[in-house]
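USER: Please consider what follows.
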Amino acid sequence: MLEEPDRRLSQDPVAIVGMAGMFPKAPDLRAFWGNIVAGRDCTEEVPSAWWELEDYYDPDPFAPDRTYGRRGGFLTPVRFDPMEFGLPPKSLDSTGLVQLLSLVVAREVLRDGARGRDGWYDPRRTGVVLGVCGTNTTLMPLAARLLAPLLVKAMRARGAAEEDARQAACDYVRELPPWTEDSFPGILGNVASGRVANRLDLRAANHTVDAACASSLAAVRAAVDELICRRADLMITGGCDADNSIISFMCFSKTPALSFSGRVRPFDAEADGTLIGEGIGMLALKRLADARRDEDRIYAVLRGLGSSSDGVAKSIYAPSKDGQLTALRRAYDDAGCPPDSVELVEAHGTGTPTGDEVEVTALNEIMGVPGDSRHVAVGSIKSQMGHAKAAAGAAGLIKAALALHHKVLPPTVNVASPAPAVTAHGAVYVNTTARPWVRDPGRPVRRAGVSAFGFGGVNYHAVLEEHHADIPQERVLHPVPRACLWHAPDPGELLSLLEAGAEPAEGSGVPPEHARLGFVAADEEHRGRLLATAIERLRTRGAQEESWGLPEGVHYRRTALPAGTKVAALFTGQGNQYPEMGLRALLAVPPLRAAFDEANALSPPGDTLARTVFPPPGDKDTAHAARERLNRTSCAQPAIGALAAGQYRFLRELGFAPDGVLGHSFGELTALWAAGALDDDAFRALARARGLAMEERPEAGADPGAMAVVRAADDAVAGILAAHAELSVCHRNAPDEQVVGGGTDAVEGFVTHCLREGVPAKRLPVAAAFHTPLVEHATRPFADACAQVDFAAPEVPVFAGAAGARYGQGPEADQLTLVGQLLWPVDFVERVRQMRADGFGVFVEFGPGSTLTRLVKRTLGADAVVAVPCDRGENGPDSAAVLKEAALRLAVLGLPVVGINRYDAPAPEECPAPSAVARLLEGPNFALKARQERFRQAEDRAGVPAAELLIPPANGVPVPAGTGPDPLARAAADHLAAHVRYLDGQLATQRELVELLRSRTRNGQGPDAALAAAVGAITEHSLAVGEAHTRAGEVVAELLGGTGAAAEAPPVRPMTNGQADAAPAPSPGAVPVPGVPPLATDTADAANAAERAPAVDGAPGAGPEENDRSALAALMADDRMLHRPVQDLSDIDPVEAEQVLRQIVADKTGYDVGMLEPDMYIQEDLGIDSLKQVEIGAEVWRRYPVIKREELFRFSEARTVGDLSTMLKELFSSPRSGLRHTGGVPLGRAYVSLRTLPPVDVLTGVHHEQPRALMLDDGGELCAALGQALTGRGWSVLRLTVPGVPAGGPDTQPLDSWSDGELRDRVAEALSKASRIDLCLLPLSRSRIMNADEAVGRLTHGLLFAKRARALLLDCARTGRRAAFVTVTQLDGFSGYAGTGGEPVAALAGGLAGLVKSFALEASPVFCRALDLAPDMAPDAAGEALLEEIADVATDVLEVGRNGRHRRTPTLSDAPQRLLPHAPGGPSPLTGDDTLLVTGGASGITAWCLEALTEDHRCGYVLMGRRPGEDDGVRSALEALRSRGVRADYVSADVRDATAVRAALAPHADRITGVLHAAGVLGDRPLAEMTAVSAAPVIATKLSGLQHVLDALGPERLRHLVVFASVAGLWGNVRQADYALANEAMVRHVCAMQAAYPALRATPVIWGPWEGGMAEGVHRLFTEAGVPVLSREAGTAYFRGLMGPEHPAGEVTVMGPVAPWLRRTESLPAEGLTAVRSLTGLEDEPMLRDHRVAGHPLVPMTGLLGAVLHTVERARGSRLPVVRCQDLRIARGLYLDGHHPRAVGFHLVPNEQGDTVRARMHHADGNEGQTHFEVLVVCAEEPGEAPRLDLPRYEPTGTPHPCYTQRTIFHGPSLAGLRDVLDEDAERLVLSARLRDPAFASGAYAAQLFSPALSDLLLQGAALVTHGIKGCGGIPVSAERVDLYAPLPDDEPFVVVAEAGRTSVLDTYCTVTACEPGGRVLQKWTGLRMLDVNEVQAVRLLTTYVSTSTPAAPGRTETG
C-alpha cells in the first residue's frame, strides 16, 4: 500500500517576500514598524469625518442607538489618485474605501517585493486572496436613499403638510450619493480582490474570504493552497478593513466589547475591553524554493498553519480554550516543530479579560517547558491600533514577520501589571518594551506564532520562522538616530551649504583641508534644532575657531587632525556593565546584535546571556535579580566583550583602523581580539572561560574578596594602605583614582576609613578581588582554556595593562601574559601616558559606559587629547545615538570613517505630485462628506440653501420648489438657477480680468498685445454667451406664455438612464465645438442636474454604453448616418476635431479634458480597453462621417492619448495607410497554394538619398550577402550581432544577451549613429539554426526585434519616404510550402512570415515583406533579390518566395497544388489499430472534433493537457469519447516541459501512432507591449510543445500528424504577432515533416473562428466585423472530411474565412510616384505571338491599360479596385520590333481625395518625356451599380467567328474569343464570346476587374463593327471612358455589344459593352476611337506618335 504523501506545509514552506500596509497613524509599512518599536499608542477620539460624537455617543452602554465608545484606531487620510490606477474619477464616489485603498496597498506590496527589479513576477501566475468581512459603508448612504418615502409617510402621519414632508425628504436625499452603474461593484466585498487583480493585471485566482476577525489568516490559508498546489507562483494575501463607521461601533458596543476606559490593554490586570481599528495589510507569498532561486528578499518563512472550529460552545462569540488548543496543535504539527521552539506569539489579544485569559491559558499549556519559564514573549498589535477586524490577523502577521526579519521582540503597550493568567512560572510573559531578539542556543531558529480568532468559533494560528540568507544585512526600518555631516573648502562655503538646506554628505570621505561639521539627530525636528544651533555658532565666532563642540552634540573642525596623529582603541573591563546595556544600539546597528548572537551561543539553554543582559520585563524584584545576575563574572565579562566587539566591528566597517589597542582588565582580552591575535571563536571562548574561572570559589564558603575605588593621589592612597596591609592597589586608573582589593571585610574597613578621613571611596559591584592573589584559583582553568586556542601575532601594538608586561613576544609568551594579567595590578595611568608619548592623540572607548574616556581626560588633560566613548552608561543618552556620534566625531577629526548610516533605511521616495483629480479619502464616508461639502459650497455661492430650489415629488424625485409637477414650471426654475450661475461666472471672469490688468499696470507696464487679444476674445465670447443666454430666456418665456411656435423650441437634451443629460457650462479653457454637446466638468453640478431632471415614464435609458454600441454597430455596418450633414475633410478644423476626440476620451473616464496628457496610457492610466478604443473611433466617425471607416480601426493600436491625437491629425493632414474590415468574407474550405508573381516594378526615389538599414546579424552567410548588397547600393548598414557573434567594424553593436532590455539599449546606441532608419532587416541564416530550442529562441528574439523596429520605422514613415521591415529566410524558395528540403527544424524559421503579416497590420504605413530564398541561391543573387523586393511598387504582397527563376506568393485555391512528396499508394488511413495523442483535447473545438471523428474512425485516443485528471472538464471529455465505444485515456503534462511530456507518454508511447497537436495559448497584446515573458507561452506551446511530443514518441514511428493552426497566422492579426508567428512556424514545420517522412500523413489545418468556441464578446465582434464563424456542425464536418482517406497528405488546408477580414489601406504620396518595369522577354509571351503586326508583337491597348491599372492597384495595396477609366490615350504604342525600349515607367499622381489617379506610361530608357499611354483612373471600394441591356434570345453554338479565318482581324488562336453573331444592323453588332484567359506576364498586365485578353474581345468587336461600316477596322488609339463593373468570365460565355457612333474620314467612335447572358453589364467602353489605318501605316504610327492626320486606307483590322 502506498504511503500517503506528507502534505504538511513544513515540507513545502512559503516565503513572505513582500509586505505593505496602512494602519492608524501609519500610512505605510515603515511608519507601522516605527510605531511598533516606539511603543506608540495610535488610537484617538473618533474624527468628525467618520461620524459626529454629538450624534451617536452616550456613555451609557444601554442607550439605544448610541455607542459608549469614542476612541479607536483610524486610518490616516490618503490622497488617492485614480490616474495611477486607470480608474475613471467619476467612479470613486460609488466605490468602497476598502477597494480603493486595497489597490494602493497591493501596488506597494508588489513594489516592496520587487526591490527595484523589473519582471520579478509573472502576472499570469499571480493571484490575490484577501480577508474582508462585515458591512461596506458605501452601501449605507445608498440604502438610506431608499428610505425617503418612509420619511414622507412618517411626517404626513404626524400631520405635516405634503409639501413640507417632501421638502424634508429632499433635504435628506440630496446629500446622499446616487445609485450609479459603479454602485453594485463598489459595495461588493469580493471586488476588493477583483479590482486589485484587474488593475494590476493578475491572472491567477482572486477572491475574498470572510471568517470574521480571523479573515486575514483564512485568506492566507487559501493563498498558500494556491501556491502549494502549483496553481500560482505568487500570491498577494492579507486583510482589509477601512470601516470604523458608526455601524461598526454599534456592533461592538452592543456586544458589548468596547473598552470603557478608552484604552486597549491586552493581558493587563486592568483590561476592560477593546477598541476597534482600521487597517489594510498585505503580504506577497512565494514558495520558499522559488524565492531562494529568484534571490528574493525573504522577510520570514511561513512554516505551518492550523485552524479549527469551536463546535458546540457557550455562544457564537465566546472564546474556547479547546478550540484554540486544537488550532495550535494543528499548526505546530503542520510546521513540524515543537510549540516550545517559539519565542514570540503575536496573540489575538483583544483586551477583553475573558478572551485574554483563555488565550494565555491555552498558550501556557501548549508551550510550557518544565524548568524554562517566561521564554515566550506574548503581545498584541491591538494595544497600539485597536482591533482591525478583518485586517487584524494581517497586522499581526506583518508585525511578527518584521520582528523576525529585524530580530526585534516588539512591545505591547498599555500594560502596567500583567493579568493573573500571566504567571511567573508560565511559558509566556508580556513584552512591554522593544528588545533585541538574540538567538537562543536552545532555539537556534527564531520562530513566532500568530493567532487570529473570529466570531462563529473560528480559530487560526500561523507559525513563522526566520530565514537565513547569504545576503547583506537588511537595513533597519524603524526610525533611528541619523548622523549628519557637511563639509566645504572653507567655513564660509560650509555656512552657505547649511543655510541653503543642503543634504548631508553620504558615502564619501572629507578632504583633509575641508571645514566640516556634524551631529547626530534623533529625528527631523531634532535635526532642525541642531542645524539652527550650528548655523548660529558659525555665524558668530565659530568660523574663526579651529575646532569646537557644543553640549548639544554639534562638532566642528576647520581641518582634519595633523597627519601622523595616532588613534587608540580602548576596551573597558568589568564593573561598567548594566542591564539592557546598548539596547537601542542593538536595535539600530545589526552588527551589535550579531555579536550578542555569537556570544549567546555559548550559554546553556534556559540560562542565556541574552536573558541576563536583556531580561524579560517584570516587577522591581525581577529587575533587581537581573542586575545581580549580570554582576557575576560568568555573565558580565562575555556581555561586555560582546558589546565592545559589536561596537568595534561597526566602526571597522566604517573605515576605523586603530594604530594601537589597550584594554582595562578584562578589556585586555578584547584588545587582543581587536588586534587580530585571537579569532572570533577564540575570543568568545576565552571571555566565557575567564568569567567562569573567576566566578568559581577555591573552596566552599571561601571569601572571593572585594574591590573599592578611592579618589586620591598615589601617595595619599599609599598612606592609607599602610594601615591596611592586607589590601593592595589593583588598578591605577587616573592620577587621582586608585582601586584597591583584598578580603571583603578589609575592603569594607578601608572604605569606612576613607570616608571618615574625607577621602571619597566606594565599593565596586564586582564578584571578586580581581588582580589580587584572591583570584589565583582562576589562573589554572583560564590557562587551560588559553592553551586550547591559537594565538597569532597582533596586527597592531597591544599595550599590556600591567607594569612591565608586553604582548607580541610570541604565542606562548602572550598566553602567559594574558593569564598573569588576572593577578597583576592594572597600571592604566602609565599605559595611557606611554601611548601619548608614542603619538597617540585620539582614544576611542569600546564597551559599556564611558569610564575609560573620563580616565584618559583626567590623566592627560581634557584639551591634550580627544577621547570618544561608544556608550555613555545606564542613564546616558540613546546608545544608538552615542555610537553614531562616536563615528561622526572620528569623521570630523579626519579619520576615514564613511557610511555611518549604512544600516538606516533609505529615505522614502518622494511621491509624485498628484493629479488634479486626486481625492483625499478621509474615512469610510468620504463620498458622502464630499458631496455634502459640495452642496454647502453651492449654497454659499448662491446665497440661498440649495434645498429651497428643490422639493421632492410624490415619486421621490426632486423637482423645483414652488412649481409642483408642472414640467414648464420646472424648466423655468432650472432656467432661473442657470441664470444665477451665468451671472456668477461673468462676475468671476470680470474680477480676474481686472486683477490681471492691474498687475500689468502697477509698475508702469501696459497690457501686452497677447493679453489685449485674450481680453478681446473673452469679451466677444461673453457677448456671444450673453446673447445665447438672452435667447434662451426668451424661449422659456415663450414656452411659459404659450406664444412660441413648436418649431422654435430649443432642442431636447439627450436622455441618459431615463434622465435628461445636464448641460453645464464648459470648463475654463475648453474649446467650444459646434454641434457637440458640452461635457460635464464638475461632478457636483452634474449631480445637481441629474437629481433635478425629471424621470420620463416609458423612456428607455440610452446611457453611454448603449450610445457607444450604436456608434460601433454603425461603424461596422458602414452606416453613414445620412441625417447628418456630410463634410469634406478640408472642411474639418483639425484643432476642433482633436478637442472633440479629447472630450470623448474624457467622457469615457471622468477626467477633465485639460488633464488628458499626451503620454497617458489608454489602458493602464485611463482604464479603456481595446474595444473601447474602437468605440472612441466609432464616435469620432459618427461625428465626422466623411472619415474613412477603415482608418478608425487603427485607434485600437493607440497606446497613449498622444497616439490617438497623432492618428487623428494624420487623418486630417495627409492620406495615409490604415486598416479596414473587408466585409463579405466567404466561408469555406481552401488549400494554400503558390501564385507566380511578375517581376518587380521598381519604385524610383523610394528611399532617402542616404538610406540606412538596421540588420540583426546572426553571423551567417545570408547576413553577409545581404549586408554586402546593401552597402554596394549606397546603404549604411548598422548591425546588431546576436550573442556569440563577434562584432566587426564601427557600425556594429554586439548583443550581450537575448533580453529585450539588451536589445532596447543596443538599438538606442545604434540609433545614436543614425537619426533615421529606413529598413529593419531580420535575416535567419539556415546554417545558424541547429535545433528546435534554438529556432524557438531566435523566433522569440525576432519578435522582440520587430517590436523595436516598429517604433523606428513609424518615425521614418512619417517623413513621407518608404520605411521597410523585411525578414529573409532560406527555406526552399517556396516559403516553406515545398518542405524545406525535409528539415523540420530549419522550417521553423517560416514563422517570420506570420510575424511580418501581423506587423503589417500594426504598423500600417510600413512596407513589409517576408522573403524566402532558395538555400542554394548565390550570395550576389540573394542580395539582388533583396534590393528588388524592398523597392517593389506592390504593397499588397507580404510574403515572397524566390528560387532563382520565379517569384511566388502564397494564395488560396480550390484544389491542392501538391508541392510535397508522398508515399506510393497515398496516405495511410486511420484504422482501429491507430491511437492518436491529442494535446489540448479535453475541451473546446478539439473535443468537438474528436467526438465527430469517432463517427468514422474507432481508433484510440490519449488526451494530454495541463489540468489534473480529476478535473470535471477532463472527465467529461473522456466520458464523451468512451460513450462512443473507443478507448480514451488522459495524461497530465505541460507540453512545454519536455521531461514531463516524456514521463507522461512513456506508458503509452508504444501504441501511439499519430499526433493531433491542438494545444495553444492565445496572446492578446499589441506588438509594442510584447515581452519575452508574454510571448514565451504562446510560442513555446505551439512549437516546443510539438517538438517535445515528437521527441518523446519518435517521428519515424508515426503514421499521422495533424496540427491545428489559426488564420491569425495565415492572414496576420492585430495584437497577435506572437500567435501568428507560432502558427506559421508550426505549419511550415509540418510541411517539412511530410517531406522528411513521405509515408507520414501530415495534415496542417488552419481554422477560422468557431461559434461557441470563443468568448461570446469575441464571437460578436467577429460577426459585427463581417467575419463568418464556423458552426460546430460545419466545422466538425470539415474535419471529418480532411481526416478521410481521400484527403491528400501534406496539403495546408484552410477551414473558415478564405479571405482576410483586415486589409491595409495604402495611399499614394501627394506628389505621386514613379515605378519602372522591365520589358525584357515580353516579346516571348505566348499571348503576344497571337497579336503581331508586320511580324512583330504589338502590346494591345488593353495590355497597356492593364499594365497601368495593375500598377495603380498594387501601389495602393490592392485595397480598392479600379472601377472607371477616363481619357485613355495611346501616345506611342509598344511595338516589340527590337527597337523598343527595354523598360517603361509608370508615373502616378493622385488627386487630393486620393481616389483618382492620373497615370502615364513613359519611356524609361533615359527619355522620360516620351509618353506611351496615359489615362485617368478612378478607384472605389465597390463598383457602381451595373446597368442592364436587353439582349436577343440566342443559343450559342461555340463556333468561332469567321473573322479569324477570313483574317478580317489578325488575332491568333489564344485571342480568338468572339463567337456567334446574335444581332446585327448597320451600326450595331451583338456577338457571343467565350475565351480561356491566356497567361500573360504573370498577371502584370491585369487588374482586379480587368483582363487584357478578355477585354480585347470588346476591341475586336469594335473593329468588326467599324469594318462593317468602312471596310476596314483600324486600330484603337483612345477612349473617353471605360467602366468596370465585374471581371469578365474566364472560359464562360458572355455577350459583346459593339455600337458605332460618330464617324469621319479618319476615325470612328464606338461604344462597346460586355454583358452577362442575362444582360447585366460587366464592362463598358465609351468613346472608343478606332483610327483608320492599314498595316504599313500602323507600323509607322507605332514607332512615332499617334496623329489625327493619318489618312485612312483599306486593309486588315488591328486592335493594337
Notes: The radius of gyration is 46 Å. The chain has a mean pLDDT of 85.
